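Forum > Structural Biology > Help requests

Title: Can anyone predict the 3D structure of Uridine phosphorylase?

Hi all, first post here. I have the sequence for Uridine phosphorylase but no way to get a structure on my laptop. I'd be grateful if someone could post the structure tokens.
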Amino acid sequence: MIQSSELILNPDGSVYHLNLKPEHIANDIIFVGDQNRVEKITQFFDSIEFSTQKREFKTQTGTFKGKRITVMSTGIGPDNIDIVINELDALVNIDLETRQPKEKLTSLNIIRIGTSGSLQADIPVDSFVMSKFGLGLDNMLRSYLINEVSNIEMEDAFVKHTNWDLRKGKPYVIACSEKLEKLIESDKMHKGITATAGGFYGPQGRVLRLNIQDEDLNSKMDNFKFEDNRITNLEMETAAIYGLSALLGHNALSLNVIIANRASGTFSEDPYKAVDELIAYTLKKLASN
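Reply #1:
Sure, ran it for you. Structure tokens for Uridine phosphorylase below:
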């Protein structure tokens, strides 16, 4: 039996942070970071059956062309992903009354639609990136036993290439879901490794008033390659989503609109239009499945 201190429920029986019960979510879930982006997706739905929000976690479940889909905001960062995926898994794979894991487990399909900055000059603003791998620079997933789901060879190659300071923790690498990759794949998508940082400023090489541990890290990441895979972009959620999903038996895929190009110093003139195009494309693919 899972103790009350480990799996915390609200007085109404919903999971603590997300404020959700099992019947509130679909098997197909779209993650966004910004709570205001939830309705940018559900505005295309035929109907919405449920809506709630607690803190930065906003959830709406409805139907798009006959397909039941949940859209949820996760907020920013790997720490929030730890909350979101563990609580979603509890909703489908733990009996909340008996507090026992279920004998028959459910696999969720989780697709992140986000915005990101490109590290490569030839991946311009307004283009789409599919994360073949998530490279975690954040160290969050190291709290779990991850060797069976991680790409240790790529991790070691990255550590060597960047002369990574292991006092920051060893980076981890997790692959996307092959099932969702095949479903969403398109000639429009750039593919590669998405690096996930634990912060927005220093961890992503930005300098305001504080010096950073490795001022050359971004340039070293620019030219890292492993078996023809290069680092395409840098953000704050993908590797954590991939890692927890792989460990818990869920399918996960991260899609990003490039709104900034760090190599050229450019920023999208209309990022909202590019995001809407990726939303429409993703919904169409999900509904056809």
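The radius of gyration is 19 Å. The helical segments are 38-42, 78-93, 152-162, 178-184, 217-222, 238-248, 271-287.
Shout if anything looks off.
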